[in-house]
Amino acid sequence: MNTAPNFGWMLIVGGLALAAIGAIWLFGPSIPWLGHLPGDIHIDRGNTKFYFPLTTCILLSVAVSLILWLVRLFSR
User: Fold this and answer.
1) Pick the residue with more confidence: 1 or 74?
2) What is the mean pLDDT of the chain?
3) Half-sphere exposure for 22 (CA within 13 Å, toward CB)
4) DSSP H or E run through 70
5) Spatial separation of the C-alpha atoms in residues 64 and 45, rounded to whole Å
6) DSSP E strand stretches across 1-76
7) What is the largest CA-CA distance in the chain?
8) Is the separation of the CB atoms in 41 and 52 below 8 Å?
9) Pair 51, 40: CB distance under 8 Å
């Protein structure tokens, strides 16, 4: 079995994932609602601040899962 085509697909998917992470890093601060969704936990008491973007994490997880599912579907 020749593994070269599989490795090529892995490189393509890895490159696209890296480009997507770079785009999010670059354009993320200009999206005002990202990280401030209902369900994100923000506690501010005195000198202590705690922030956990729960809803944002769930949305990003669903998006990444959908993208990986589509990649796997079309790579067959």
Assistant:
1) 74
2) 84
3) 6
4) helix 54-74
5) 34
6) 41-45, 48-52
7) 62
8) yes
9) yes
Distance CA 37, CA 57 (A): 10
Would you say 70 and 16 are in contact if contact means Cβ atoms under 8 Å apart?
no
The phi, psi pair for 29, rounded to 5°, reads -65, -20
51 Cβ neighbours under 8 A, 6+ residues apart: 40, 41, 42, 43
DSSP state of 3: -
| Integer Cα distance of 69 and 63 in angstroms | 10
Residues 6, 21 contacting (CB under 8 angstroms)? no
| pLDDT above 90: residue 29 | no
Polymer length in residues for the chain: 76
- pLDDT at 1 (0 to 100): 54
The Cα 10–Cα 14 span in angstroms is 6
